[in-house]
Amino acid sequence: MVAAHPLLDIASLAKTAGVSSRTIRYYGELGLLPAEERGPGRRRLYGPDARKRLAFIARLKSLGLTLDEIGELNTTFDEGRTPAMLERLDSLLDHHLAALTSRMNELKGLENELASYRDRIQRRIEKDSSR
């Protein structure tokens, strides 16, 4: 009997997910993406949800979450506690949003300081060139 969703070896998963095999191995080492089973030659084989999990990891990384935070979410999810995982994700996103807002305010202040300093320098250049 043929499986409804054949397992993918690491190279095939990497190609379809647009990541390197090394990334998949690394995520496996961290417990973020365990292989479903081992095939001939002890090659890692992954189930159909591995691509979804890779996309989820990529999305969370793009939002600023660390691999440790993603691992924490994965552990909670793997324990069958989806509501708890979602609550923790909400808390992490709130924390990252607050940190981003703070950093943006700092950068705005730096932008203003740079512009002011540049204006002073330009005035000095103009003053010196008019002599």
Can you put this structure into words, describing what you see?
It is built from 5 helices and 3 strands, in the order E-H-H-E-E-H-H-H. The radius of gyration is 24 Å and the shape is elongated. Strand 2 and strand 3 form a beta hairpin. It is mainly alpha-helical and 131 residues long. The chain has 2 domains: 62 residues, Multidrug-efflux Transporter Regulator, Chain: A, Domain 2 (Orthogonal Bundle), CATH 1.10.1660; 68 residues.
The termini sit apart by 91 Å
Rg, Cα atoms, Å: 24 Å
- Helical residues, percent: 55-70%
Q: Give me the strand/helix succession.
A: EHHEEHHH
How many domains make up the 3D coordinates? 2
> Mean pLDDT across all residues, rounded?
91
The count of β-strands is 3
